[in-house]
Every structure is written in C-alpha cells, then in structure tokens.
Amino acid sequence: MACHIQIGDDPTLWWLAEQIQPSQLNQPLAVLTWYPIRGTLVLSPKATNVTIFTPPPVLVPPPLSGPGNLYLPTATGPSAGHIGYEVPGDPAVLANQIQALMRNGQSQTITLGGAGGTLILNGATLSFAVTGPAAIGGATPHG
Amino acid sequence: MPSYIQIEGDPAKWWIEDQVPTSELTGGQPLTFTSLAPIEGIMVLSPRSATVVVSNVPSGSPQAPLGIPGEIIYVPTAAGPSAGHVGYEVAGGVDAGSLSSQIAAAMHAGQRLTIALAGGGTLVLNGATLTFAVLAPIAPGRATPHG
Questions:
Q1: Residue at A115 is within a domain
Q2: Domain, as residue range, for A84
Q3: Smallest Cα–Cα separation from B35: which of B56, B20, B14, B51?
Q4: Cβ <8 Å between A51 and B77
Q5: How many CB atoms are located within 10 Å of the residue B62 CB?
Q6: pLDDT, tens digit only, all 143 positions of chain A
Q7: A140 domain residue, yes or no
Q8: Which of A36, A53, B8, B142 has CB 3.0 to 4.6 Å from B51, enough for a Cys bridge?
Q9: Does residue B22 carry a pLDDT above 90?
C-alpha cells in the first residue's frame, strides 16, 4: 500500500509507491516516489522528523516535469521547472551513491550538468534526496 | 523581564514564561520551558541545537498565541508556525506533559520516538537531531480557539 511522507522542514508531501514503517528508518532507505517527482527517494536515518500518512484512495497526480534529476531539501519544495539539479549519469546509480554516503557519513563532490557548477553532498547531514525521473523505467532523454 | 529565544533553522521568536537560564543551555541536557507565543505550550529544547539566541526585552509582551485545533506538536520548520499551520495534531488522549518528557528522554538518549497522529498518521522524531519541539495545550481541554 502506498503512503505519503513529509520530511523535516521541507513542506513537500511525497507520494511513495509503498508503505514504510517507522522501524525501517534506522538505516538509509530508497523507495520509489510517484509525486511530485517520479523517481527514487533516498531517506537518511538522520532526518529530524518524518511524518507518515496513509493516503486517501485517489489517483496520483501527474508528476512535475522539467530539467533536473536530483532534488535536495528546500524550504519551498519542488515546483514545475524547479525540480532540482541536473546531474549527468544514471539517476539509479546516483541514488545508490547517495544511500552509501548516508550510510558511511562521507561527502561527495558532483559536477553538475546544465548551467554547470559543483554540488557537494554531505552524507552525514543530508536528510533526503530524490533522484529521477530516469530511475524508473530507464533513462528519459531530454534536451 | 520578558524574553524570547530563537532556535537554529526556525525563524519564530519563542516567548518564554520565565527567564531563560542561559547557563543551563550548555549543560548538555534537554531543557523544558513554558512557551507563551507564538504557541502557548511546553517547549523541549535539545542540547544539540547548533544555535540558540536568547533576547531579553526591557518592555513589551508577546502577541496572542496562535489558535490550536486540539493537542498538537510543533517541530521546526523553515517558515515557523502561523495561523492554521501550528504543527501536527496528535492522537487523542495524549498528554503534553507526558509527551514532552518522552521527547526529552529521546533527545537525551539520541533515540527515535514514534507518535500517533490524529487521522491515522505517524510522526517519527529523531532525538539525535531534533532541535526542539512544542507541545500544546499545556493541559488537556485548554486548546485556544482558532479560525
């Protein structure tokens, strides 16, 4: 059964493909998310607070679209055209890397695509990340 | 003298009933205060908060507290509490005093605490990273009107 979760002070209500239990939160968790970004949500055990809701039986809205395949927590949440950073490579591999960073508490430097830049992820403090949308059903070409 | 505190990551100015014992803020133990505004309730402050600012105000008083729909728990947000956004409503029968003790214990031990929410949800708090929480009302049946 699906569930909704809200993490830390990011206002987004994430629609997950499966129910998660509080007992699962003691290690990094990767779970498919349907909305607002279709992809993989990687949740850290260090997240300050996680709220889990059982959703009403309604259809999942269409996910947001736009450039970007790595969403990191913000005070406003994702929106159309602002769904995160553009990271070259396979989002599924990136999700695995982030999960490993959270597990060992290490940092990783990532060169961004798009407008360029460098992203430094700190696995010791990052509460969650969402990679996608190519993590589900293979890569989605764009551009 | 009135005082308020501001805590890492949340913009709200929390007015405290009593003088904040600043010497105890570095004591390594969770502290419990009575908060007057923006939510009238019990504040539990973690010793792990990266920054806490205590401001003593020569004069003045806090604004009226926000209305709450029932027994609620507020945890830090980037926007702070506001009318209609005062946190999560906890399942019935939960006493704020008891819950504040459980949260303080979770902060002290760095452990998780699972809280049942009204409507069937579940809130999982991480005592190792939670900076503070506010429980209201202080006593059952004292919810302030809202709307």
A1: yes
A2: 3-55+62-131
A3: B14
A4: no
A5: 18
A6: 789 999 998 999 999 999 999 999 999 999 999 999 999 999 999 999 999 998 877 888 999 988 889 999 998 899 988 889 999 999 999 999 999 999 999 999 999 988 888 899 999 999 999 998 754 443 333 33
A7: no
A8: B8
A9: no
Q: Residue holding tokens 């070259």?
A: A88
Question: Domain-by-domain residue ranges, chain B?
Answer: 3-136
Residue B50: exposure state from Cβ atoms within 10 A (0-12, 13-18, ≥19)? exposed
Q: Is residue A101 assigned to a domain?
A: yes
Chain B residues within 8 A of A11 when measuring between CB atoms: 77, 79
Confidence class for position B55, pLDDT limits 50, 70, 90: confident
Q: How far is B16 from chain A (nearest CA, A)?
A: 23
Tally of structural domains, chain A = 1
Written as one string, the DSSP assignment of B27-95 is: SSS-EEEEEEESS-EEEEE-TT-S-EEEEE-SS--PPPPPP-SSSEEE---SS--BTTBS-EEBPTT--
- Which of B7, B126, B132, B134 has the most A C-beta neighbours within 10 Å, making it the best mutation to test the interface with A? B126
Q: For residue B120, which residues of chain A lie inside 8 Å, CB to CB?
A: 53-54
Q: Is B133 exposed, middle or buried (0-12, 13-18, 19+ CB in 10 A)?
A: buried
Q: A25 phi and psi, to 5 degrees?
A: -85, 10
Asked if the structure places residue A10 within a domain, the reply is: yes
